[in-house]
Amino acid sequence: MENTFNAICQKLHQLDYKVTPQRQVILQAFLENAAEHLSAEEVYNIVKERYPEIGLATVYRTLDLLAELDILQKINFGDGRTRYELDQHETHYHHHMICLECGRVQEFDDDLLESLEKLLTQQTGFHITDHQLKFFGYCRDCAAQKLKRSDVDAI
Fold it and tell me: What is the CATH number of domain 1-88?
């Protein structure tokens, strides 16, 4: 799905949802931060600068609606906060690497599980429609810092 502002608004209209100013400003926040994985609080902090009247409850309701309509993807990285990103991926071959030190999230698009999905379907008859793969570890910068600290500790 083409995730331009107009395309998303058109989808909302087709599904009989109003494109309110609050929804518009929230959509714009995601379009301007397309590479980010934003929590509701982060979205709220972004949008309240442009639309000071917006409430956190409105942000939560809008995020839930947009996720339900497959405009946003809801993701849990194990840090206790639900995050959202634009659902820009035509396929489900979208995975994440999460740094345990700084919390940085890196994406990669290679589908490492395609052959496993086929095998599971053949063996069980289960029709897989999606999967998520998350790797937890240390990004390049944090791994280098940990290595420096361990070198200092060894002295």
Answer: 1.10.10.10
Superfamily in which the 91-155 domain is placed by CATH:
Ferric-uptake regulator, C-terminal dimerisarion domain (3.30.1490.190)
**What is the token pair recorded at 39?**
């929590």
Binding residues for Zn(2+) are 99, 102, 139, 142
Which residues are documented as binding site? 99, 102, 114, 131, 139, 142
Whole-angstrom Cα distance, residue 141 to residue 114? 30
- The per-residue pLDDT for 70 is 87
Annotated binding site for Fe cation: 114, 131
pLDDT in tens, 63-97: 999 999 989 988 887 778 898 988 765 545 667 78
Indicate the range of 9-13, 97-101, 146-150 predicted with least confidence.
146-150
Pairing mode, strands 134-137 and 95-99:
parallel
